[in-house]
Hints:
Elements: H1 2-45, H2 47-50, E1 54-56, H3 63-74, E2 82-84, H4 88-100, E3 107-111, H5 114-118, E4 121-123, E5 135-142, H6 145-148, H7 150-158, H8 163-174, H9 179-189, H10 191-198, E6 208-213, H11 217-232, E7 236-241, H12 244-252, E8 258-264, H13 269-275, E9 279-296
Parallel strand pairs: 1-2, 6-7
Antiparallel strand pairs: 3-9, 4-9, 5-8, 5-9
Helix pairs in contact: 8-9, 8-11, 9-11
InterPro entries: ABC_Gly_betaine_transp_sub-bd (IPR007210)
Keywords: Cell membrane, Membrane, Signal, Transport
Protein name: Glycine betaine/proline transport system substrate-binding protein
Amino acid sequence: xxxxxxxxxxxxxxxxxxxxxxxxxxxxxxxxxxxxxxxxxxxxxxxxxxxxxxxxxxxxxxxxxxxxxxxxxxxxxxxxxxxxxxxxxxxxxxxxxxxxxxxxxxxxxxxxxxxxxxxxxxxxxxxxxxxxxxxxxxxxxxxxxxxxxxxxxxxxxxxxxxxxxxxxxxxxxxxxxxxxxxxxxxxxxxxxxxxxxxxxxxxxxxxxxxxxxxxxxxxxxxxxxxxxxxxxxxxxxxxxxxxxxxxxxxxxxxxxxxxxxxxxxxxxxxxxxxxxxxxxxxxxxxxxxxxxxxxxxxxxxxxxxxxxxxx
Length: 311
């Protein structure tokens, strides 16, 4: 009888200890699961806090900055956020520094741009379509340019390339090559494409042209490339950087001859509406452009609507 009771007691105690341990383990797992969920929730909620509830912009008045300011109005979850305007160079520097440390950052972005060739980035989805859809970059020239510089006019009319072409020039410049050398190299290495632009066009000795552009990496690249092609065809070329509005105004008023930097329909839409009757639109020189909010791919966020209101 004694042995039987002891054995029974041992089984009972053993079973109790097992159940107790299992219970503790289950509670601990649940605790860890809850903690993980809380940490994840906090991480999602605190993205705004970690970036100071601000989007790093470029120059004040730029189309992508205006669109971002509109986004802050349109999205209820962006109340209290602001656009921190600076310059395209300062934006790129801030982006690079954040990526080096794997820190969160949100910037105003556009494609084509060398940062997409250098870094793993993504656009935040824009359900309200504040930034519009795909954009094109157009060539605009002053009226009567075809009469005063017919060969340059034809080359500008034929100018057309891809986002990948543009990004290769931008990346070469970013990595230390002068923009003049980067443009010359691209023209030399893409002879077949350039020949399409100058096909049937004679040397334009004596023609002069002033190309104006906004100092975005994309427009620095395109303006220098087409400028190099024009020079090789005998055109005397002057390149002049200007602010957005003045760029449009100078071509419309005939103070400058042309620009290959018109982002439409969204980015420069207001300026196009203001000056379209005073310009000659030569059509797209690049398709597939885009603007929006851009973040590093390692950030656990996919949509503008995932952001939280400022607290």
